[in-house]
């Protein structure tokens, strides 16, 4: 819309639709704080439309650039180096590298410095790459464009980062606000605009904002060229819901309130455009102030790995102490016996007989360097490389690609890959995380008859397992339509009978039992019409006009089409009208009304126009209704009403609201369908649907005029009691209503959410739901996604109305404590296996429960429940719950959300997951992993989490094994040579061991190893519990691999020494010297550790074979080439392979013998374990190996069932509970039928006749 020409204003001023003053700023609230302006904390001054004045002090403010990076060009090198040398192993090798230039070093400096530089360099490179990705995401946000006023009424596109305080901007519909803005005007004449703040507070309802009346004239690009003003306000802070300031404009001062403030990362909706001036920019905005720097997170495995390093370091100190003590004693005792060493003539501090203590100490330092290979220097860098490669494979997994959005999973950090396999609790947001922010009309109850079908996915699954027709079964058991008319009951029964085969899946001609049923609204099925997923041939296609008592149906549809705040929007592509409204439920109702033949097509300030289907003629007629009053919906009223008059002058009140609110306002003659409607509401709620009740009344002209005159008088009242008086006035008219029925809409779940939760529950994870929505909505979603089930005991933690109104802190705490203790006692007394518990906590009770006095008792209760649902939770409370849950449970916690209000929770959790949905990127940018939809969490955890945990665990254990097997041979040789501190291997052998000859196989193990395939992981979710129990990286396993390494080193060194020492080495009878012994020992170690990793691998690929056998081949190639170098470079190993050991058969025989013996302990262990104590993955591997999953399908299915953890939540558990419930109902029905039969006169007569002849 061009701003330079006269703009076309919207027809409807939404603020005037309301009779309550919900949109006008309450100036009495801000007045008491105006005296604070200019004082500390309230010193900000903004010169509107004059950003150049903010280029210098004292009014210089930061620009709009926002950064989430960890480093910059100046800080990268010092900070990254500091982080690397905070690791104990790196710090040790830095010290060893420094000592390598001294005479104490047993190796040349290059052999210690080169690996250290390589390891630290790779780790720093990985940090730089990850921070670069953060920078690129920041750039995407900072590069968004917005129209900015540059003078003379000209607006140009600028990047967000270029905005300055004082800039005037123009934001269009469905765009995000780039900064915190003061609203000047909008496309509506009265300065109203509608804002979606879901990205900030998680609420889906639109918030109405209104500009000051003084700035309403600034509604054109040219008008802005003359705009000058000064804003004096509070300093930057993190409070989203308060603002103190005033605007000095045209020699007047106007108080400002949060009603005029538009916050960064909220979105403009239902408004063509707005003009605003930047108050806070970049790091000063409230959204950014609410976010924090991403904390440094380390996985449990990595933290435990530090303790393993400490153990290895202690082992190194121990053997160094043994070497030093042995050297001192050996030097002192052998000074006369070993005269040929001439220790007195050639004084060496390491072997000074006169000062054995000093010699021992120097030998200790030398031994610390010599045995440094016990500490795996390449472990950290190998894990860094492996984690990056794992993250790349996760990012490329097509199983987590969302075709609709074109997005895939993104591992934003690779530090926590293995932590994905150890998650025990999930804390989830609701809106945008479990749901997709869309409402669908699903069912309705009119005059006690339910439409839209009764069957959901749970019913269908139960019906197939029980081989019954659940829909007709429900009808026959609960008698839900018993209050309806007999003709309707007959019709319903007939309809049920006609679809019996389809529900039961008996129609073999159709693969899907749901197909063809015109009565069933399928939960998981995509609707053809957005917002409308209703199927029932009794109402669709104008069939409702043939029902009895059509007049009530017409009234029902009129309530749906008239009782709302929506505005029609023409759709050029179809004959259907689109709608915009404050809440998505209203949009769903308007779409449904349109499908039923009541199209809401026009709205003015005082009229509403419908195109109605006339049941008498079957034609569509246009009818105009005069809108007399609109009584809005809010959290305290829980209802909404409109008062309209039709063309005949009849006045009606149409009302919709919560069932308990409407039922208590019904007239005595208006409760005809209350019992049946209540039962339908219960069924709808169990299906996870949101419900509202419709009612109406006809108002006489005199009654209305009397009430309206009083209402107008109340509206003109200016006092603190105004809202209460308005509420009392509405109560006077909203009474003696006639019940019409109810409607049910679905807060549409994202695809696959119930199935994902079911699989996660079977894997042993607990799920808590944290939402800013009200309790009723949260419970409905709990049912919809199968967190709650029918037989689950719900423990509601809330404040009573009396206690809440008293405002006595002591009474409030006592009430909450009493409830918590009683619930805890109830759980103890009940049988936990058979009785599931759900804890539902509202916002005020939660605030009290999280206080220091009650949090221990609260979390004790929460952790004993199967599911916890927290309602009305603020962003700070989400973060606090996450932190306290970690502290009290000690479990690994994953938090998942999609909005800025979830950032604190995401950052506090051990693993934070952001949903990259339709909203902003705050949650994603703060997360460790991002997903397109919630359902991909199943594959991320159960498949990739399980794999990564096992891979990293195996990697660390293998590193411990190979470094002990290698390092201890140096210790044995030191003992063998009289504690001389002599090194056994050439310096280049030492360098090549970790850098080349054993590095690639362990990397392949960490990247592509699989104990089972991804499909099997999903079929056997209980395999995930290996990570939760930390089976693969327990101290038992760690000690076992240390022992395995010790045994391997002993076998290698002992066999080689005692085979080669006493006999000739080759055909000429030459005895093996130190270089021969060292090279042969090294060869055996290379073969042993590479064959060991081959035995550890379950999933072989060509890559595995290539790197394992290639590493062994590389050793021979290196040995060959190294031996060809001139003696100046190759020194004592010149020609050693071609001229010495390579020609000797003994070399090859010893290698084969030593490798077999050194691997024998592991082979014996794994044989015993798999034969007598197999783990779950061992059993599955055997089944897959012998293809029993194909040849013996029942056995495979039986193993699947055995692997599932018994859980109280999830779709499967809900189906099981439904079957138990239906069986109990069936039993009671049969029992009552039997009693009715036996008590009937006919039965007694028959029995009497049978007894009489016998007598």
Automatic annotation (TrEMBL):
Topology relative to the membrane: Multi-pass membrane protein
| All copies of domain P-type ATPase C-terminal, residue ranges | 924-1174
Q: Name one GO cellular component term.
A: membrane
Spell out the subcellular localization from the entry.
Answer: Membrane
MF terms from GO for this chain are: ATP binding; ATPase-coupled intramembrane lipid transporter activity; magnesium ion binding
Q: Where are the transmembrane segments?
A: 107-125, 308-330, 364-383, 956-976, 988-1008, 1038-1060, 1080-1099, 1106-1125, 1145-1164
P-type ATPase N-terminal domain location is 46-112
Write the record's keywords in alphabetical order, separated by commas.
Answer: ATP-binding, Magnesium, Membrane, Metal-binding, Nucleotide-binding, Translocase, Transmembrane, Transmembrane helix
Q: Which reaction does it catalyse?
A: ATP + H2O + phospholipidSide 1 = ADP + phosphate + phospholipidSide 2
Give the protein's recorded name.
Phospholipid-transporting ATPase
Q: What organism does the record attribute this protein to?
A: Abeliophyllum distichum
